[in-house]
Amino acid sequence: MKKSIGAKTIVYPTPVFIVGTYDENGKPNAMNVAWGGISCSSPPCVSISVREATYTHGNILNKKAFTVNIPSESHIKEADYFGIVSGKNENKFASTGLTPVKSKLVDAPYIKEFPLILECKLVNTTELGLHTHFTGKIMDVKVDENLIDNGNPDIEQIKPFLYDPSSRSYYGIGKRLKNAFSVGKDIKS
């Protein structure tokens, strides 16, 4: 039997997206965003939800661009830090020692040390209450060369991690189970 626990912001998996933006003066900023995911396959788009009170919110509206940076487990401390302090008051890149790199495609920085980057042009904004839902068209995906297998990012080498909103904890990705769009073919109708 299922037990109701009420309407909560719980879904699995929840990503750890580090969103890169520039402010109006060109200062790079990064923010930890858990509310997000792929939202369209053609054109390729990713969506994130950000509170209006954040520095990143205004930066996205101003520059019409952002990057989604996927950190590896080795950068869990820096990723968490990006969600603890505001870029209004602190230079997060100086504090963490990470390197902002100016995208050649969109007006936003990406993080050199993170293995997987999505460069996004803002295409849609929707107000949803406390959060604004930003959809970005993915202009390019960048991956560290040594982490590519058969032309695609290798999740086991990248070692992204996930956020659990119910325990407010980070988790690793776990093990590979089966091939998608294949294992289900064993079920006969």
TrEMBL record:
List cofactor names only: FMN
Q: Which UniProt keywords apply?
A: Flavoprotein
* PANTHER family referenced in this protein's UniProt entry, alphabetically: FLAVOREDOXIN, FLAVOREDOXIN-RELATED-RELATED
Q: Where is the Flavin reductase like domain?
A: 9-163
Cite a single GO MF annotation: FMN binding
**Mind telling me what this protein is named?**
Flavoredoxin
The UniProt family comment states:
Belongs to the flavoredoxin family.
Superkingdom: Archaea
Q: Do you know which SMART domains this protein is assigned to?
A: Flavin_Reduct
* Family matches, as Pfam families: Flavin_Reduct
